[in-house]
Amino acid sequence: MLKTLTKIFKVGIVTEPLFSDKTSTEFEKTGSICKKLIATKFSGSFAIRQIDAGSCNGCELEIHALNNPFYSIERFGIHFVASPRHADLLLVTGPVSRHMQAALITAYEATPNPKLVIAVGDCGACGGEFGCSYASCGAVSNVIPVNGIISGCPPTPTELLRGIINILTKK
Ligand code: SF4
User: Fold this and answer.
1) What distance in Å separates the CA atoms of residue 28 and residue 161, rounded to the nearest whole number?
2) What distances in angstroms separate CA 71 from CA 6, 63, 64, one per listed residue?
């Protein structure tokens, strides 16, 4: 016990700070650009339906972080909704498993026009580690039309927000 306590005392805290100022500043800047675009093009409110079409859940952890008290994405006018019928954008992680293929098509068809789709993560973009196989359709674009891609394994919250800005800028 004494040996362990001595070691803890000598080593000290070795983890990185929870959030660096740099992360915070970049996210705030990106968020304010996003807020302006949403105010101009979507009357201040932009609805996203997230669909996990077969991911490892790594991408979902970063997407969920957008709603935590630090990132708090709702203050920029972005809301995650429970139904594709209420969504402006489908945020889809992949690869698309064969089991999710029909459900993804149904969700796409249920989303009102004009709809947007972003494929998230390297798996969503091209199938990533998993590719195409008897169990996987690979990229999201192999199943439904895609308007944008956010690469990364997984992409960070700031990269996710930048990807949303890219698609809003083109619209
Ligand atoms: S891109 Fe990486 S984190 Fe995202 S689903 Fe694929 S393996 Fe998981």
Assistant:
1) 10
2) 37, 10, 10
Ligand 1 centroid, distance to 97 Cα (angstroms): 13
Both tokens assigned to 63: 């997407």
Encoded tokens for 4: 């362990």
Q: Which two tokens stand for residue 150?
A: 């956010």
The answer to which of 15-24, 61-70, 73-82, 117-126 has the lowest mean pLDDT is 15-24
At residue 49 the predicted structure's pLDDT band, cuts being 50, 70 and 90, is very high
Q: Ligand 1 atom 6: the closest Cα is on which residue?
A: 123
Asked whether 61 lines ligand 1 (CB < 6 A), one says: no
pLDDT band at 16 (very low <50, low <70, confident <90, very high): low
45-170: CATH class = alpha beta
Identify the residue whose C-alpha is closest to ligand 1 atom 5. 55
CB of 120 shorter than 6 A to ligand 1: no
**How many angstroms is it from 7 CA to the middle of ligand 1?**
36
Structure tokens at 7: 């070691």
Would you say the pTM of this structure is higher than 0.85? yes
Ligand 1 atom index nearest CA of 129: 7
Mean pLDDT of the chain: 93
Cα-based angle 18, 164, 135 (whole degrees, multiple of 5):
90
